[in-house]
Amino acid sequence: MLMHNPPHPGEIIRELCLEPLGLSVTAAADGLGVSRKTLSAILNGKAGISPEMAIRLSIAFDTSAESWLIQQYQYELWHAEQHRKDLKVKKLVAA
């Protein structure tokens, strides 16, 4: 079952990882080994969590890479489901 309107993983990073530690975007980006621009795009919901970023986050925050990818998947799937009726797909059946 899909979560109702799940948050973007960037929101989770900001609220549950950066804010409690008092980390700035610049400091967090440096710690993750990415540019400030890259992290900022994720935090602002303009970019998603890649498998590599999931690994970086898992190392930095002692979490699992899978949990970050699952959050990204849930976010994307929920948003795609909002446009299900717009898809031009026919049910396929055996001939």
Largest sheet: none
State which percent range the strand residues make up.
Answer: under 5%
Average residue-wise pLDDT: 96
Quick one: how many beta strands? 0
Low-confidence stretches: none
**Number of DSSP helices?**
5
Assembly state of the chains shown: single chain
Spatial gap, N to C terminus: 32 Å
Shape: elongated
Can you describe what's shown?
This protein is mostly helical and 95 residues long. 60% of the residues lie in helices and 0% in strands. The two termini are 32 Å apart. The model has no long low-confidence stretch (mean pLDDT 96). The longest helix is centred in the last third of the chain and has 17 residues, at 65-81. It is elongated.
Topology, element by element:
Layout lengths: L8 H13 L3 H8 L3 H8 L7 H11 L3 H17 L14
Overview features:
single chain, 95 residues
Please summarize what this structure is:
The chain is mostly helical. It has five helices and no strands.
